[in-house]
Amino acid sequence: MQVLLQTRPVQEEETKDALLEVLADKYSRAILESTLEMPKSTIDLSSECRIPISTTYRRVQLLHQHKLLGISGSISQDGKKYFLYKSKVKSIVTCFGSGTLDVEIVPNSEQKS
Fold first, then answer.
1. pTM of the predicted model, to two decimals?
2. How many helices (H) and strands (E) does the chain have?
């Protein structure tokens, strides 16, 4: 069975540059990969990906800012806010040729609870 992936082309040059810069960072890539199937907290991401917690918070903020990471949250019984992060992208495809850069995003349509 062949599955047709729905891609979303990126048109704006500034957005393309920003996405490539974010993806150049190994911590950002590790966070996106770790959250493909299941949402995770910053504590879980820091531990699983072996990223310092302060760096994890910065990367999560950056990925969310660029719409690559979704946030869901709640308040725990002791009154603390608890946020979970999940990748909004399954993959990002880039192609450079003839002086142009094409960037396409494959959304993460994985719906797991």
1. 0.82
2. 4, 5
